[in-house]
Amino acid sequence: MGVPSPNPPFTQDPSGGFREAMRRLAASVTIITARDEEGRPHGMVASAVIPVSMEPASMLVAVNRSASLHPVLVRTRRFCVNILGCQQEDLLAPFSQSALREHRFRSADWHGATGAEHRVLPWLRTASAVIHCDVDWTADYGTHTLFVGLVQAVQCPEAAHETYPLVWLAGRKASITTAA
Amino acid sequence: MGVPSPNPPFTQDPSGGFREAMRRLAASVTIITARDEEGRPHGMVASAVIPVSMEPASMLVAVNRSASLHPVLVRTRRFCVNILGCQQEDLLAPFSQSALREHRFRSADWHGATGAEHRVLPWLRTASAVIHCDVDWTADYGTHTLFVGLVQAVQCPEAAHETYPLVWLAGRKASITTAA
Questions:
Q1: How far apart are CA A99 and CA A93, in angstroms?
Q2: What ipTM is given for this predicted complex?
Q3: Cis amide prior to B56 (ω within 30 degrees)
Q4: To the nearest 5 percent, what fractions of chain B are helix, strand and coil?
Q5: 3-state secondary structure of B163
Q6: Measured between alpha carbons, how far is B149 from B153 in angstroms, rounded to an integer?
Q7: A15, A92 contact by CB (below 8 A)
Q8: What does the alpha-carbon distance between residue B128 and residue B82 come to, in Å, rounded to a whole number?
Q9: C-alpha neighbours within 13 Å on the C-beta side of residue A44
Q10: Probe site for chain B from A13, A53, A81, A82 (most B CB atoms < 10 A)
């Protein structure tokens, strides 16, 4: 690090520096799902997902207003957070590329991908954990909308208990383990 | 996983299930710092930290209203996010235990721990990245307040570029690596 300086080396370009700093923030990868009024499933890859409070149990998701999922969430006010396991990287491509949209819910691991509007939202039975939320509060900030959802139901598959989550770092998949 | 069921095994206790689900969400560990009107440094360990938007560059931190840092953030409206590296676990204990409060900023790695109110906030020169923010927007939700900060300056120490971040999973430190 060299000699400590009383004048921190601030980045001249906060925006560029910010992108680099965010590459150094590791985060679990999730797929957020919803269902529109015609029963069609929608989904988006998201890593800006955090718990807000335990009482009430609630989660926050930041969604770009240009995302196709955004208007569905605004109208239907329900979402499901699917925390991916480390073996589920292959599920990401269809949700990241519009050209692969038709392949999004083709995996047999997706439950409830089809159905009427009121049905349970699409959820991944091989996920590390699945959290079903009703949108309770929203706020727009910059390019994004913050959606806070009240937790309605949670699924933690037993088999996933032994599986590590899919984690992203520096723009790619990272390997993660915990000590015995 | 057994035979797929059309009726997902919803947890009867959403709150208990939610805690277990959140143990399966890996997250980078940060120390959020601030400085009060008397120039005293304050800090808190936080993993509920996400970027909100790139334009403007902004970060969101969820802070429990019972945290000692909370009133300082409300009054002074500045915070600094220090993304810890994997070797910095030892810095956590003083910030997690009130009894060790006096030890919080004793490490020589902390810069700007002392100084007048207007000075740069305490920042960790050995962090993976440091993001200085001015609070632009807040909202209360449940037990927490959401603070969104506009990024004012970023430090990404060169030496930390090769260092993996400190990541928490299932209540403990996880080891993380990226493929070559």
A1: 10
A2: 0.90
A3: yes
A4: 20, 40, 40
A5: coil
A6: 11
A7: no
A8: 7
A9: 20
A10: A53
